[in-house]
Amino acid sequence: MLANVGYFTIVLTFIAALHGAAAAAYGSLRRRPDLIESARHAMLLTFPLLSVASGCLIALLVRGDFSIEYVASTTSLAMPTYLKITAWWGGQAGSLLFWSWLMTAFTTAASLRNWDRDREFLPWVIVVGLVTLAFFLSLVVFFENPFARLWMTSGGEQVSALFRPAGATPLFPDDGRGLNPLLRHPGMVIHPPMLYLGFVSFVIPYAFAMAALITRRTDDRWIRITRRWTLVAWLFLSLGLILGGRWAYDVLGWGGYWGWDPVEIAAFMPWLTGTAFLHSVVIQEKRGILKHWNMVLIILTYALVVFGTFLTRSGVLSSVHSFAQSAIGPMFFAFIGLTFVVSLSILISRWPELKGENQLDSMYSREALFTLNNLLFMGILIVCFWGVIFPLISELFTGQKVTVGPTFYERATGPLWAGLLLLMGVAPLSVYGRTSLNNLGRAAWKPAAVSLIVPVAAVALGVRNVAALLGCWLVGLVVAVVVYEFWRGALARRKLHGENLGLALVRLAGRNRRRYGGYIIHLGVVVMALGIIGIELYQTETQGTLARGEQLTLGRYVMTYDALTVFDTADGKNVARAVVTVYKDGRNVGELYPRRDYYYASQQPMTIPGVRSTLEDDFYVLLVDWQPIGTAGATFKVYHNPLVNFVWAGGLIFILGTLVAAWPDREPAGVRARVLARREAVQA
Amino acid sequence: MHSWLRLLLSVGVFVLGLAAMAGSAAAQGTTPTDDEVNAIAKQLYCPVCENIPLDVCPTQACAQWRDTIRLKLSEGWSEQQIKDYFVEQYGARVLATPPAEGLNWLVYVLPPAAFLAGAFLLFRALRSWRQAAAANPAMPVAPAPSDDPYVRRLEEELRREG
């Protein structure tokens, strides 16, 4: 019953989405307010309808109704309730429903918030939102039904369908296969929702951009309306990427946090264009230029958002992330192609109307440096995109698949990241409009001189690697510039308002959140950069097979193998757990318990590292292999990861900065009054 | 034959045998360490576990590949010979990056070419905008940031944003 209700609610939502999109488009073109109102109602219906459908699925998951194929394939009796709920996005059909549900939540919020102020945009925002929604729902309705039941045909074949196929009998398995063990980590429980929230919220600025083009309101109003949406999208996408990195570090057992896996890159690409967009729109707001480019960036971001979902969901590029594979690839491919071509066509048709209001006055102005920043982000995007699709191209033309591994990405993007760090140090000191190299030099020399302390200190500490020293200098430069900017701003406020420095700092950030939030984000990035330098350039590793009591040495660390136990657990897995004692410089620093879990139901092994974590470094131990009990030999792989915790600490600072930048402003009284007056006028 | 001569001959044969075994062991080298195996495994990918380097892949098939590397190393094969062996057996996809030949050149050439093209277009656009601005010198040159102008700039921006 619940399954039928869930499926038909999705079908109803699909119909409402199609009707809403068509009515909004036709109503706008023919100036029919009744149709637009009908479209708006249809759109407002989608969220409650999909909430009902999602509620049905969650109830089936929690209840453990294994006659439903999705429930049987993603949950099991032994799973705790919270994991059963997260199975909503743990499989393909459920995650498509989850994506769609988030989409309805965001389009509803966008239109409820902006309806009175942005009446000319909203019908087209509805069109874009509902077309995107209808596409995702069509996948659920026609290809990936999370409510399909399990049946046994008369020929003895197991099939899935909502209704009984002729001659088939229903199947009621006693237990399900359970959620993919890799997905049972707390980081992975939140990682997909964060990424999806990021993906979905980028649809809103894209929808407003399209609305601006179609309605010929090509000034920067659409950017101002969606400024916060973009920051929120970026916040969630960043959070998703950081959590994904933490998950990989804790669960995948390769000693690192980023493996340049195609699906990681798929989530990273919209982040790259989104970041370029966030910088570039500032220039349009301040100087009225780069209007074409901002449109291109947001169109690209939207296409990459769908492409990212496509890569995870289509199984075209199988990778550690491609848990779910099905035949929905061609649908995604067609949708991306169609929306991209249509968006570009609309952009080209409005090209002359997007002419800049100003000229570029200097190669050293802030706007020029921001365009350079965009060029570097695009460079990284090209490397990523090409690396991801080249194996397909190679297979298509030569029949031979190739691997494009981390080495390629690291070498190709390394200099571009260094360039971005340099710009992060220089650009905040530049000014808009007409300026000169002399002016920039005069503003930059003090922090640049201070920043030299960092590489000098690094040399004194024994660092000799040129890349590391360059990285340290760039990190020092960015920190010096950020501190300098905060300092100058606080001093200025103290001079003008007589505030003490602490208060001046808080008010400075509070009254210009985007700018000072941006500086905090820069700080987060360079702290992360320190961690990346540490692990990329100074990670060491060793592996050895030890008998009990034997030792393995790595740098200043010694590890002794003490014991190993193998046992079954109540939740259906076999655990091999080693006990090792770690010594640093001869001092006992504690025990670690690396283990290997084997899930009987899914026949999947999972390596859980034992990690001793400090700000300075991580000592990361993996249990690779072990002999049957009695001979007492076990093989361990050990990594020394210097500064890796700077990656997570930098991530936290980064998120804090984004929160500062995206925090809602109090609406000035004048604006509030105007909105209220307009609302009353409309109602009258 | 005298018994002492027989004894001498036996000892001689035994010593020669030992020498031969030692020579053969020396030619094959000592048993490779896990780190030596992993140094090569790190650069290889098995066709099944895509995107997981061989040195960290937990599957049984990959453990067998690592055993093969160990065997080849103990037989005195070089790193390049071992990589060539796997390429010959399973194709170029086992390598971490495509070999720079044929169509694969595109992997390495296209991104820098696209980046340079982008940089060239950007530079041309910036220059043409600047020339247009120079022809219309309406705007005053911004003064160098110093304390007082900064205060003005800061306050002006704070007002605009606030």
Describe the structure.
The complex is a heterodimer of chains A (684) and B (162). Chain A is an alpha+beta fold. Among the domains of chain A are: 1-179, no CATH class; 538-645. Chain A has 20 helices and 13 strands. Chain A has helices at residues 2-29, 33-63, 69-74, 81-86, 92-114, 122-142, 186-214, 221-252, 262-287, 291-314, 329-349, 366-398, 406-426, 437-451, 453-460, 466-497, 501-511, 513-538, 644-662, 669-683, and strands at 149-152, 158-161, 169-170, 540-547, 551-554, 557-568, 573-584, 587-592, 595-599, 604-608, 610-613, 617-626, 633-642. Chain A starts with a helix and ends with a helix. The model of chain A is unreliable at 319-324 (pLDDT under 50). Chain B has 162 residues and is an all-alpha fold. Among the domains of chain B are: 25-96, Orthogonal Bundle (Helicase, Ruva Protein, domain 3), CATH 1.10.8.640; 98-131. In chain B, helix 2 (34-41) crosses helix 3 (60-74). The longest helix of chain B is centred in the C-terminal third of the chain and has 30 residues, at 105-134. The chains are: A alpha+beta (684), B mainly alpha (162).
Relevant terms:
heterodimer; A: 684 residues; alpha+beta; 6-stranded antiparallel β-sheet; 4-stranded antiparallel β-sheet; B: 162 residues; mainly alpha; Helicase, Ruva Protein, domain 3; 65% helix; elongated
